[in-house]
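REQUEST ID: PR-0412
SUBMITTED BY: lab tech R.K.
PRIORITY: routine
TASK: structure prediction, single protein chain
INPUT:
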Amino acid sequence: MTQENHIKIMEKLTQEDEVLVAFSLDGTLIRRGEFRRAIGALQLRLRQTLGDKQKHLALCCDNAYSFAVALYASIGLDQHIVMLPNSLSETLEAHSNVFDAVISDQPLTFRKRPVIATNSTSLTEQKHNVELDLSLSKSQIHMFTSGSTSDPKKITKSFHQLLDEVLTLRTLFKDQLEGCHFIATVSHQHIYGTLFQVLLPIQSLQPFCCDQIEFQEQLSALPEERYALISSPAFLKCLQPNDGTTSRLSCTFSSGGPLLLGDSQRASAILGSAIYEILGSTETGGIAWRQQLADDSAWRPLPQVKIDVSEDSTLVVSSPYAGGTQHIQDQIEILDDGSFLHKGRADRVVKIGEKRLSLLELEAHAQSSPLVAEAAALTVIKRGRERVALVVALTQNGNILLAENGKHHCNEAIRLYLQQRFDRVLLPRYFRYCTHLPINKQGKRVERQLQALFIEENT
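STATUS: complete
OUTPUT:
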C-alpha cells in the first residue's frame, strides 16, 4: 500500500507541467515541467561523469530546490546519498572517504572528488529522459548526527524509510497541511529539514520555498497564501510581536529540542498558528509529537512508533523509521494513555560533591529568575575538580544589573536565587554572559562550544 502510494505520487509529477513545485522569496516560480527537465539534465551529467555504476554522492546545496533536484536525480539512478552538515572545504575534506562525487549549487574549491553542478542552464533547456521510478530503488541515505552532545556519527537509512515516514506525517497532519505552501527556517541538509521542507511537500504535491527563512520580517513579506512553517526553538524564541506575521500561517512545526511552555504560547500568539513540536533524532527519525497547552504537556508517539522504558527509565524506541529498536538517553515517564513525559537527557545528571544534580533542572530554575532569559548548565574541570558552570543570556533587568554592578555581583545574585532550591555545593562556580547562547544550524547547543567559553576562565 505504501509503495503504491509513492508510485502514484511520482506518476503525478510526470503530468500537468504547469503545476507549481517551488517558489523563491524573490517571486520566482518553478513548475513541474521545469523540475523534471532539471532532474533529467542532472541525470545526464551524472551518467557522463560517473558512468552507470552505483556511487556515493554528497549533496551540498544551499538552495532547497537544487537539493530536491539533486536528491531525486540521484535516487532515480539508484545512487547512494551522503548528506553532509555543510559544504565547507574542511567538512568535505574530513568526509571525503565516504563519497565518490559532490553535487552542489555553489562554486566549491574542493577538488579531491568530482564536483557536479545542479544548475547547468545549457542542459536544463534541453529535453532528456527522466528516471523517476523510485519503487525499486535500493538507494541508501547516509546522514550525520548534529554533534550536539558528542562527535557527529554516520547514520544510514534507506530512501524508502524516509518516504514511509513522510507518508505517516502526511496522514497525521493532513488537516493542518491542507493547501499549504511550505517555508522553513531550518536547513534541508539535516533529517528534519529533509523530511519536512523537501520530501513532505513534494510527496504531498504542494509547493515549497527554495530559500531558507532567516528573519521574522521575511514572514511578513510573503504573498497571501496558506503556509506551513518548518522551524526550530532557536527561531521561535526570538520572535517579536509583529502584526504582519500573523494570518498567513496555517501551522508551525518545531524540532531540535523541546520548547518551554511560555516560549510555545508566546510564539503561537505572535504567529497566529498552533505550534506542533516533533521529538526525534537522526538515528530514530520521528518519535512523538505534542501541542503544548499546559506545563509538562505529554508527547504522543507517532503512528507505527512503539515506546518503552528501560530499567534506568530511559526511552526505548521501536519503529520502521529507526530500522528496529533504539535505546535513547532520554528519561521518560509513560502515562496510562500511552503518551509520555520527557524528563530530559539521562546523561545530564551529574554528581558534584557526592550529590546528584540535574543540569536540566538547574537550567529551568535559573530561567525562572527575573535576571535570566536563557541558561545552559554544564560541568567544567578546574584545578582537578569537577565544578558546575552556567552560560547565561540575561534579561533587560539582568543586563542593567551587570552594567551597573559588575559580573561578580550578577553572579552572586543568580547564585542566591538558585540557592532557594539547590544545595550550596551544587551552585554554579563559574559564569559566562552572552547575548545569545551559542547554537548550531539545527538550533541545538553544542557541548564543545559551551566548554570552550570556559577555557582559561578563572571567575
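NOTES: The first strand starts at residue 20 and ends at 23.
REVIEWED BY: pending
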